[in-house]
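Our collaborator T.R. sent over the components below with a one-line note: 'Predict the complex.' Nothing else. No constraints on interfaces, no templates requested, no preferences about which chain binds where. So this is a plain run: every listed entity goes in together, and whatever single assembly comes back becomes the starting point for the next discussion.
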Amino acid sequence: MTAFERLMAYERDTQALSQISGRLGWDQETMMPRGAASQRGIEMAALEAVLHARRSAPEVGEWLETAQAPDEVGAAHLREIRRSYERAVKVPGDLAKKLAQVTSEAQGKWAQARADEDVAAFVPVLEEVVALKRQEAEALAADGELYDALVADYEHGTTSAEIAAIFDAMRPALVDLRARVLDRPAPRGLEGKFDEAVQMKLARKLARAFGYDMDHGRVDKAVHPFSSGSGLDVRITTRTSESDPFNCFYSTIHEVGHAAYEQNISRDYLLTPLGRGVSMGVHESQSRIYENQLGRSRAFTGWLFDQMKDSFGDFGIADADAFYAAVNKVHNGYIRTEADELQYNLHVMLRFDLERALMQGDLEVKDLEAAWNDRFEADFGYAVDKPSNGCLQDVHWSVGLFGYFPTYSLGNVYAGCLHEALRQEVPDLDAQLAKGDTSAATGWLGQALQQHGGLRSPKDTIAEAAGMVPDHAPLLNYLEAKFSAIYDL
Amino acid sequence: MTAFERLMAYERDTQALSQISGRLGWDQETMMPRGAASQRGIEMAALEAVLHARRSAPEVGEWLETAQAPDEVGAAHLREIRRSYERAVKVPGDLAKKLAQVTSEAQGKWAQARADEDVAAFVPVLEEVVALKRQEAEALAADGELYDALVADYEHGTTSAEIAAIFDAMRPALVDLRARVLDRPAPRGLEGKFDEAVQMKLARKLARAFGYDMDHGRVDKAVHPFSSGSGLDVRITTRTSESDPFNCFYSTIHEVGHAAYEQNISRDYLLTPLGRGVSMGVHESQSRIYENQLGRSRAFTGWLFDQMKDSFGDFGIADADAFYAAVNKVHNGYIRTEADELQYNLHVMLRFDLERALMQGDLEVKDLEAAWNDRFEADFGYAVDKPSNGCLQDVHWSVGLFGYFPTYSLGNVYAGCLHEALRQEVPDLDAQLAKGDTSAATGWLGQALQQHGGLRSPKDTIAEAAGMVPDHAPLLNYLEAKFSAIYDL
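Returned assembly:
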């Protein structure tokens, strides 16, 4: 076997073991008996140690030195294996161990601090996490900002300066649009109770309508919906709340976006470094375009309105226009995960600017709460009432996920670009969506983007599919047009 | 760290990874989407390779050379680690690989041959498996019969000669008892339909009644019921058939016997070599005593009769005595897994004698069908009608499980011994079982046997708990008394 073939064979087993790790994560959130947590922790750590040893194995470095890619795809494989290998060997083992240990404890302390509304209790913990993540970034960084090295874990090939340029251009427009919308009379929202078993039945129908392949996946319930796995086994979860079926339906469509991406990657890439979604941002572009640009469109909600009437009878919404307004209702709120399509990005940009400043040393952890509250009031026009609605609301920082937040909004920006291209590609899209038929849209996304997996960089993946360098203008134009129509601006 | 401590730390991770492998097996039978099988195969093989490398790692051999056990339990740990290490290094890698490959293909060919009722198609496949298993046994055997080396994988410390002595003594008595019972009028069996959701509800109640800990387990459905996992996460499966609720209930109790054994092993042994049931035979003793001596007793079936009336209303069985007879109805049949408590062991002994002869070279694969059919008619009094009811009925041989069959009946023999001791220990057992209370019985088994895990050899585990060297007399006496009463012999 050549060095290239050896690498690929070795990598296949590493990818397979990594899939197992993901499957255990799924099990933990859906099936695992509650008394099994401590044993599962030991099992996961043992598997993680195996994976880390494989990713940083000296023979991988040796094979990489001599391996010759047979073609362009082979070159992409080598590029991804090299990236993973360098990531694994650059961070000293002691630091990695310390980070794992500190973030594991920090998560519990964050949960307690949030329950107690006690920022002061969390400050020293977060200071430690920030210090360690800065050390990690120093170990990883070749040049540029420290923060860039962390962003690269989730969106490689994109700098924080590039992200900041996009976000800074979007922010005033979104603040302005939000103010104009909330100045108008609020549409009627959903009221009443909706049987949860019936919700799940309709959720499965929606999943199928968006092309989710049940032969290579399944739908279960979890507290926080997620998608898990790559290739031939990609499972999603959703949740139900008797009073809020939209949560169930749009969580489902969102996760189907993630899962369909994984399911539609070329089978040639199965269990290779290219056989997974290329980045968090591109992943989020798929979940968001499924959920928002398609799922919350006037055309598709018309179909969904009929489905809901079939499932639940008359539920107090007069017609499809009123239903569309209810689905897309803009409302004040502190919590990112509950935000509507318009305001969501403002929540994310706030976090991006703050965590970037923390990593650059421009903001100290002790000043985080004040900085958060100031920024929130500036963008949303009202004050944070308590830390659990403010800087303690998300788990991310406690577990060391710095550089992750911006990918949520990058995904929206990417989705905006893709949606513009899709509308050109499929001129009668609305006529299809109005019949609940997403196949032209999801088929185009599969062809233009999803099948390629990790072949190209995240940025190039979007550029190739959308035919443009990622830009915020399509998203802003789309939001302006959509909410102007709904709110009669 | 001392060599002993290093070994124990290393072993903990090996056990943890082995638990993961078991969990994936569970997933495969209960949750996995059907299109995921090929990817799962690669994942399992990758994990199996990691496990094999760990079990046969040279450092394990080095640590074993110098490790000093601090106490008796430590000595048992070392004994078990040594046994596993020697098992792993004795079989040449090429042979192990060849066996995995051949048995994997043989299973498919067996299934096809069984569907086609075509023994001739299976003969060359089985010849290859037998030849490889003999090679494996030669690599493993220190002295004694080749077959003993295979039995040791499932019941270490027990020779096939010892097993043969027990089985040969039992066989004529069972053949005789069977003939006398089937000479009597058959009791009425169950008729009608029983809602499967209601069956599952009662199955969960039965699981709890037998002490199954739902905080560290869960009950799902699978085609073939099984128990999976050790320590804090031990899951069981059962099945339902509308016309046969006994299948669901007694499969559940049987698997609870296996699972309770794993759950009740001392937490001090968690993820150590002693933290799993010590052998297949001892495991089966627990599943069988739960299922038969307790679950099919006159006392417990009285309680179950009331439960079934509560669940299903009048279902055509007049009273608790008639219900007891229905639960324990003896009936002709070809299939081992469908056999009643009385005849089951005759099915097993047949397989034991034939596979022992195959391994010893006293029987050739081409003569297997005739040998099976002769023996079957001798013991059961009627001829095998087709291969799927004869020598093609079980998957075991195709996948190389030689030495496994006898543990089913050894388990029954052990259960007989334990039941005799239990009756002495808990004189009013029947009064408790009549109330559906198994706690004294399962509590005694937990104390006397289950908590010790792999501390002692299988034989000593039974001897310590039952206070006697394993012997067939208690089982025979129990069966004779039970069926004499039911059938008025």
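Summary for T.R.: The longest helix of chain A spans residues 3-30.
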